[in-house]
Amino acid sequence: MTDSKTEQQFAVATESQRTLKDLKVRRPGQPVYVLGHLDNRRGQEAVFEYFNVRLAVVRFPDGKLLGYDPADLLLPCEIHDDGEAYFEIRQCRQCEQMFPLTSEEFRSEHERTECPECAP
């Protein structure tokens, strides 16, 4: 990873911060991967806009705004120099929960196959 302004401004997945809920500082424009409740939006990328009560409102590329539980919004693996977010999302082989890989996990010789909750 580089030290670009974009990477300093927005968060990427780390061992302790993998979802929007985990972040202490949530900046508008933060790229996220949506798991959420609507099948037609599940698996899409969006950007965090603001909080409305307990929901995180995200904007999709088509301009649609929807609210989600921040735990259902996964962080990117990396943000490239041009500001494009790169997501590496995996399904846990034990509990089948979706989780994002960190940059280190993605580049590791042995890729993580279990979510952090199931890992020994």
What's the gyration radius in Å? 14 Å
Mean of residue pLDDT? Answer: 90
- Portion of residues within helices: under 10%
Q: Unreliable segments (pLDDT under 50, ≥5 consecutive)?
A: 1-7
Count of DSSP helices? Answer: 2
- Please list the strands of the largest sheet in the order they lie side by side: 4-3-2-1-5
**How do the SSEs run, as a string of H and E?**
HEEEEEEEEEH
Please tag this protein with its features.
5-stranded antiparallel beta sheet; 2 helices; globular; two-stranded antiparallel ribbon; mainly beta; 120 residues; single chain
Structure description:
It is a single chain. The protein is mainly β. The protein is 8% helix and 28% strand. It is built from two helices and nine strands; from the N terminus they run αβββββββββα. It has helices at 5-9, 103-107; strands at 31-34, 45-52, 55-59, 65-68, 73-74, 78-79, 85-86, 89-91, 98-100. The strands form three sheets. A five-stranded antiparallel sheet has the order 4-3-2-1-5, with no helix packed on it. A hairpin with a 5-residue loop joins strand 3 and strand 4 (65-68). The radius of gyration is 14 Å and the shape is globular. Residues 1-7 have low confidence and may be disordered.
